[in-house]
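Hi everyone,

Forwarding the result from last night's run.
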Amino acid sequence: MATAITVPFHGSNLFVVEQNNQPYTPMKPIVEGMGLNWASQFTKLNCNPERWGIVKIAIPTNGDVQSAVCLPLRKLFGWLQTISPNKVKATIRDKVIQYQNECDDVLWQYWTNQTTTHHQPQLISAPQPNRRVKLSELIFELAELRGVPVHDVHIHYSQVFGNPCWPEGSEVSIAMANAKLKHDIAEARKYKAAPVAQLEAVAAELGMKVISEYDLQALHRLVLKQQAEIDQMNKSLIKLARQQSLILGSSVWG
């Protein structure tokens, strides 16, 4: 039975547990802390358990022992980036972004301090620069510049680095990812600066607004949905008209 380290995080209690000398974190408190539905996220995790390395660990909770679905702490950052803030309810969007920016680093810091204190009581690890938070911010910035979901950016760079769950906590991989993202952000700004700025100026004069390709696709899906609803309404009106015609043509009406 594992001993859990309790980690207070923005009004919720998260946990870190050790198994085979490696830190794991129970996923249900994280998912519910963000305001997401645990059942749907649990299903997603179970669709690819090898990818995420999920395990069940017995943890004492409120005087009882419960089996918790846990993720290796080194993979938490990658999993958090699979959630697109643009696709969640507006009421929890800020909370989701907060978890993406801070959660894995806070849990890792608690784990580091705990293990350091256990082996060397006289030493306390000093806070390290939060480079993964900066990396997450760069991902969001590039997604906004390109007009695509954050998840798409993460998938793209997973392929670029040949690592489906980049970065794995390595300082080298984090530095490489930062450098690559900063370069691509600079290129995206150059691309957007001239033609898009001119187009936005013209659109503003006409009382219009330039939207991204992602927004255009979303608008297209909305139009298709509305068209389908109109088609269904037309079918219902035609059916109603036929029924009315049959009724009025009945001998009952003379």
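The radius of gyration is 26 Å.

Cheers,
N.
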